[in-house]
Amino acid sequence: VLDLGAADRVTLFKTDAVVQGVHFNEDTPPERVGHKALGRCLSDIAAMAGTPTAALITIGLPRKFDEAFAERIYSGINTLARRHDVAIVGGETTINPERVLISVAMIGQVAREKVVLRSGAKLGDAIFVTGDLGGSLANKHLEFEPRLAESRWLAGHFKLHAMIDLSDGLAGDLRHVLKASGVGAELLKSAIPISRAAKEISKRGDAAKPPLVAALTDGEDFELLFTVASRDAVPLLDAWKKKFPKLKLSCVGRIILGHAITLRDKQGAHPLTAPGYVHFT
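Now predict its structure.
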């Protein structure tokens, strides 16, 4: 969040990257690769209740790349950019010998009084998440829709205390909020919105995670997690159902004293030790 001196707004500045073999495979449709590359930055702008304005695209390609493949990547980028009125204003093309790499740098803006940070969660706050969680590798990580309209509506109608997008899993990203805010959290096991994909993957057996673990740790759901005062929880849910009837919103827990996450079920509250997605492991 950059304060560039404008009286009524602050500037949002974000960069993110996708790498072949990490964020997509060699056989991933290139339009989806482009969608994901831009969408990741858009999701971060949404997490600040902001509006994206412009982006730069840096793409690294093997020396003998397929020109049509590269054009289709940009087709995916441009389709999503037009949907959210984002100008692709330039960038860089370079050689990357082993694999495709795309880095996106994006700017946006948000009214000073509406910007939402990670650091504002307060004791007693209700914790909400949008959508369903887990199993994103089935397809969602390549075709998610950044929650820009939803976050701006939330910030325009309710006092949000903290917000983050779920890129590294509920368990991982909630910890970022707790650390920044100096609080702890209690999640209600029965309230975690588990996706159909996570349940179907679990049924296949092998090394699949239990659905609840997938919902907590998979990452790349690109949904919103936010906290509000408990008195606003019911009015917010009621208003959300009228405004966004096709998108689930779940109250999954509350902010408590401490620094850790506990998971409450019928047997009581238990420490949640499962991490979210951990880079470099």
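Helices lie at 30-46, 67-83, 140-143, 148-157, 170-181, 196-203, 211-217, 233-243.
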